[in-house]
User: Which sequence fits this backbone?
């Protein structure tokens, strides 16, 4: 599936929720089910510090696709991280760099991406794109 | 009214007129995320009564001019208003002279002013400055900077697990090398009310001046700087129901006279030539540039408002809220209150086992309940308790027990969702 298709799928899923409670319950569930980042990557240099919550992000290149794993100390942040990974992980650097991530707005969770939330999410997305860019630059020309 | 006889200060008990008081604060009737706002983040900043909003508005709509400068009527009028505000602040703190009141932009600037100016003149290599482990970053960093600059040493008073200063340790820290003590009156994270009078007495026995950070104290209790014998007392207008961007530094005349100016420029001088500048007398010596005029005027109106309600009434009412909320919180499984001093203001910090404060705050926000989460600008204190942060509810006199009930229900709901 393309990034856009995954985004659409998430938007459809969220349309089924009747109120904010269900939405948050779902995000919390996602947070609980996110496969933890390998402990050896939970290091200071993988840490994206928000004032309120922290995110660890690891990426690697696998057959031209970038794989992301991540973790957070706060469960709601972790749920949002899980959504981001579902959308962006296992795509080519170009696809990741071009992703607009409009689904966040459509599912009514934009406030989690406002820089004032200081939950580390904005910085995480930036880091995901920077990683993608780094892989793109390093890749041998076809 | 029977209850009023037990309150000897002016005004009816708050519980009897809570609806009227709440109506004075327009923001309290707004909705957040579709729910009526429950504002429990008063420690961060307090809401403003209509009288303060009107006073600020009036400054700009019909009184605006610069102060201390013009011969024209507007300038004279607003100068009189601004200086009246200074007298209101003076009386509120019971300072001896109005020129001992310096308007600043807030607690942070007041402390920076003292650390810089006092430090420049009185602190040298090997000297010591005493603070406590429960200080706000604003009462740590300015001292760290001056220590670094001068080669002085920062000494820190430790606390007990309940969040009370270890006074014996404090006594041991006081020495011939100590040049100043700077501690908070009330902890913004723990709510602890520190024995500032005793702290000052002990320091004065060794001729050491003391700065008290009153940011969290003035909204909750009456302060008498002469009775305390404080050398410096600082606070922010915005936590006292006044405008943001205005604050107070009270300093004893003798210190302020001896200290060099903090910032220089327009307003701080008597005469300027390129060879020599003669500085103005207090308080202008410390008030460089055009100040926050409407802020000062608004702050005085906020003080009038608080006085009308009565600080004794406020303290009694908030104590009731504190006890009520504490009892309810203690019943929640896995919840631990951080800061259990015997003398506390209406500030409650807590953690819930296995849950991140940020998650709790996010769910409460969905319910229209505003609390603070995180380290509250007191990271060393978080390190002392070995926690990352807390959820903090801080009450003002316009909060109610019903709101506390809603908050407890919301909190239980958040815990259930997150567990
Ligand atoms: C105890 C204490 N000191 C200092 C400050 C800083 O106040 P301001 O940001 O208004 O300068 C605060 C505000 O949170 C505080 O609670």
Assistant:
């Amino acid at each position: 599936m393309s990034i856009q298709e995954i985004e659409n799928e998430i938007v459809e899923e969220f349309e089924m929720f009747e109120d904010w409670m269900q939405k948050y319950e779902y995000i919390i569930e996602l947070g609980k089910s996110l496969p933890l980042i390998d402990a050896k990557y939970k290091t200071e240099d993988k840490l994206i510090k928000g004032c309120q919550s922290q995110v660890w992000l690891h990426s690697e290149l696998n057959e031209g696709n970038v794989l992301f794993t991540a973790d957070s100390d706060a469960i709601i942040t972790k749920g949002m991280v899980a959504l981001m990974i579902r959308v962006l992980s296992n795509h080519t650097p170009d696809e990741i760099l071009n992703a607009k991530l409009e689904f966040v707005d459509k599912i009514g969770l934009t406030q989690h991406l406002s820089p004032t939330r200081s939950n580390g999410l904005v910085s995480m997305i930036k880091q995901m794109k920077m990683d993608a860019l780094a892989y793109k630059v390093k890749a041998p020309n076809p | 009214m029977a209850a009023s006889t037990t309150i000897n200060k002016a005004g009816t008990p708050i519980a009897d007129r809570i609806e009227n008081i709440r109506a004075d604060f327009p923001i309290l009737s707004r909705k957040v995320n579709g729910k009526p706002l429950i504002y429990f983040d008063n420690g961060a900043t307090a809401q403003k009564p209509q009288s303060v909003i009107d006073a600020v508005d009036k400054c700009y709509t019909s009184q605006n001019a610069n102060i201390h400068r013009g011969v024209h009527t507007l300038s004279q009028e607003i100068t009189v208003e601004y200086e009246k505000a200074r007298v209101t602040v003076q009386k509120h703190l019971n300072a001896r002279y109005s020129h001992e009141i310096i308007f600043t932009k807030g607690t942070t600037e007041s402390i920076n002013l003292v650390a810089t100016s006092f430090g420049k003149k009185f602190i040298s290599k090997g000297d010591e400055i005493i603070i406590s482990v429960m200080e706000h970053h604003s009462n740590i960093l300015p001292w760290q900077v001056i220590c670094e600059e001068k080669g002085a040493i920062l000494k820190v008073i430790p606390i007990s697990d309940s969040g009370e200063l270890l006074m014996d340790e404090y006594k041991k820290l006081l020495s011939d090398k100590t040049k100043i003590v700077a501690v908070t009156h009330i902890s913004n994270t723990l709510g602890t009310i520190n024995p500032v009078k005793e702290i000052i007495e002990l320091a004065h026995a060794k001729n050491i001046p003391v700065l008290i950070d009153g940011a969290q104290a003035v909204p909750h209790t009456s302060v008498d700087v002469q009775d305390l014998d404080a050398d410096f007392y600082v606070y922010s207008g915005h936590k006292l129901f006044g405008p943001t961007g205005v604050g107070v530094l009270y300093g004893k005349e003798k210190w302020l006279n001896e200290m060099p100016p903090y910032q220089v420029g327009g307003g701080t001088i008597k005469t300027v030539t390129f060879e020599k500048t003669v500085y103005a007398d207090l308080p202008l010596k410390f008030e460089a540039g055009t100040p926050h005029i409407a802020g000062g005027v608004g702050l005085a109106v906020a003080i009038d408002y608080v006085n009308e309600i009565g600080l004794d009434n406020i303290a009694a009412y908030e104590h009731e809220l504190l006890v009520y909320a504490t009892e309810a919180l203690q019943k929640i499984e896995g919840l631990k209150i951080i800061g259990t001093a015997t003398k506390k203001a209406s500030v409650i910090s807590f953690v819930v086992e296995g849950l991140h404060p940020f998650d709790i705050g996010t769910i409460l926000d969905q319910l229209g309940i505003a609390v603070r989460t995180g380290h509250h600008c007191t990271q060393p204190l978080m390190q002392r308790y070995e926690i990352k942060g807390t959820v903090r509810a801080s009450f003002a006199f316009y909060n109610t027990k019903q709101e506390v009930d809603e908050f407890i229900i919301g909190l239980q709901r958040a815990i259930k969702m997150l567990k």
In short: Chain A touches chain B at residues 20-21, 24-25, 28, 51-53, 73-77, 119 (CB under 8 Å). DSSP finds six helices and three strands in chain A. Strands of chain A lie at 47-49, 54-62, 65-72. The domain at 3-137 of chain A is CATH 3.90.1010.10 (Sufe protein. Chain: A).
